[in-house]
Amino acid sequence: QFLKQLGIHPDWQFVDVYGVEPELLSMVPRPVCAVLLLFPITEKYETFRTEEEERIKAKGQDVKSSVYFMKQTINNACGTIGLIHAIANNRDKMNFETNSSLKKFLEDSLSMTPEERAKYLETYEAIRVTHESSAHEGQTEAPSIDEKVDLHFIALVNVGGHLYELDGRKPFPINHGETSDDSFLEDAIQVCKKFMERDPEELRFNAIALSAA
């Protein structure tokens, strides 16, 4: 529904990933061009995040200039930012309606820095209104913008044969190594499993895949 309201033709849609086992992954329609992971922000995760950031700053990493990445400055907008990351890095595969508000946002923000994109989203009424209206259509009440929420969305995408984790709370994309169109879902789920393994007592993990309809 959210994609439709943003002016994206329904030949791609989000589907649930019911589990990480091969037989459950085989139920996901292919091809898959992005995976969104919902996970809890716990103390263990925050410790890992700090260590990961320091390690990458010290060692460096290869991030292609074509990766579309934006920072998150709006509270509780991680789902919207995850969705923008998923679509923006697959925009050549998407069919946008002529008056698509998301297409316009992406075109306007392509040359911006990750921080400028975040600021632009703050003032971009069309996406904010769509986010609010689709949040109210969900089964559970959406949290207010200021409410403290300990669940967070990230996007996993394939750009130029590399699997990137895009998280607006982090200073940069994370390159998780090589992938391909054929192996992308399995490779992305391997990254999701690492999140789960860091917090084995936690059960609040959920993944959805952006699949061809």
UniProtKB/TrEMBL annotation:
Signal peptide: none annotated. The active site is at residues 78, 152. Pfam families: Peptidase_C12 (PF01088). The record marks 72 as: Transition state stabilizer. GO terms for molecular function: cysteine-type deubiquitinase activity. The record marks 167 as: Important for enzyme activity. The keyword Heme does not apply. It is found in: Cytoplasm. Preferentially binds diubiquitin; the interaction does not hydrolyze diubiquitin but, in vitro, inhibits the hydrolyzing activity on other substrates. This is Ubiquitin carboxyl-terminal hydrolase. It comes from Pampusana beccarii.
